[in-house]
Amino acid sequence: MPAKKLPSVRPGLDVEITREPVGVVGIVTPWNFPIAIPAWKIAPALCYGNTVVFKPASLVPGCAWALADIIQRAGVPEGVFNLVMGGGTVGACILNHPDVSAVTFTGSVETGRQVAAACAGRMAKFQLEMGGKNPFVVLDDADLDTAVECAVNGAFFSTGQRCTASSRLIVTEKIHDRFVDAMVARMKSLVVDNALKEGTHIGPAVDESQLNQDLDYLSVAKDEGGNVVHGGERLNRDTEGFYIAPALVTETTNDMRINREEVFGPVASVVRVKDYDEALVTANDTAFGLSAGIATGSLKHASHFKRHSQAGMVMVNLPTAGVDYHVPFGGRKGSSYGPREQGRYAAEFYTVVKTAYTNPA
């Protein structure tokens, strides 16, 4: 990157600020978004002059291989980009190898803590993108159709397998019943089937383990007093897969497990609140802080929510999921750690800063 020249407080000295590659970057990615997430990590790593060791999730080796093939055919020199496959043993090698200068990770909170511990122990740079329990607030003055479409998209599309999914729908009391009724009506029109089939809105869960996790959380929600007003049943389709009808759970409170832990499936719970003030407190009452949204016709409430939401990304009258690649991506609290991903902010992670003083005499 071009050097930035700054004046020195000492007469006659030149000061240059430059950014240099961090070195070897270990990239560990999850099974969801198996092309997009690796791509938005690999691209800046290479562009800023680093070499890469890329380990994808074991569930998606084909996507990783296709991406590696594209990179190789693009002419990246041998040894600059390296694809490695395997489970925890391979991951541990990346985390603990003294030649790996930085590790960027997207995945679960539990694994993220292991990455942090390993990298911090040997003073390596690390970046974590982990879970979310993202709120979508619906105020009394919201346009009902907009609110429903945002909630359906954010909560259920991509089978809810997005860290930015709208898993908590926080709805003020005057619009609550109309919102729930409209949600159920819209959910009845959603098509769950083979994701490659024309007309499908929602595909299957990634595997049996994820399907069982979705069903288990619905069972827990019922045990704690929640009411599954629609969906939640296992489905069978002509194409083999782990299909589940998207589920809406009402009569929940923010202290229930369904509202504290990440389900990572097409499951949304509704929390009834009195007004905007209670909605904001409820939205922020979480260990996570990735994305948050609000549906409202009030500029006052929209502006206040953008300022006071404890999330890294805030959406107004838009789904909580869906971002642009050229702007910062990331969250706060238990959702993220380290510099932001994407856009110009990626330089903060993939480079190191050097300050050079020169006496031209």
CATH architecture of the largest domain: 3-Layer(aba) Sandwich
Number of helices: 10
Radius of gyration: 23 Å
Helix content: 25-40%
Uncertain regions spanning at least 5 consecutive residues: none
Structurally, how many domains make up the residues? 2
H/E series, N to C? EEEHEHEHEHEEHEHHEEEEEHEHEEHE
Spell out the CATH superfamily of the largest domain: Aldehyde Dehydrogenase, Chain A, domain 2
Beta-strand segment tally: 18
Spatial strand sequence of the major β-sheet: 10-13-14-9-8-15-16
Distance, first to last CA: 26 Å
Structure write-up:
The protein is an alpha/beta fold and 361 residues long. The protein folds into 2 domains: 4-130 and 325-358, 3-Layer(aba) Sandwich (Aldehyde Dehydrogenase, Chain A, domain 1), CATH 3.40.605; 134-316, Aldehyde Dehydrogenase, Chain A, domain 2 (3-Layer(aba) Sandwich). Helix content is 32%, strand content 25%. The protein has helices at 36-47, 61-73, 88-96, 109-121, 144-156, 173-187, 208-223, 276-284, 299-308, 347-350, and strands spanning 4-7, 14-21, 24-28, 51-55, 81-83, 100-106, 125-129, 134-138, 166-172, 227-230, 234-235, 243-244, 247-252, 267-273, 291-295, 313-316, 336-337, 351-358. Strand 11 (234-235) and strand 12 (243-244) form a beta hairpin. It starts with a strand and ends with a strand.
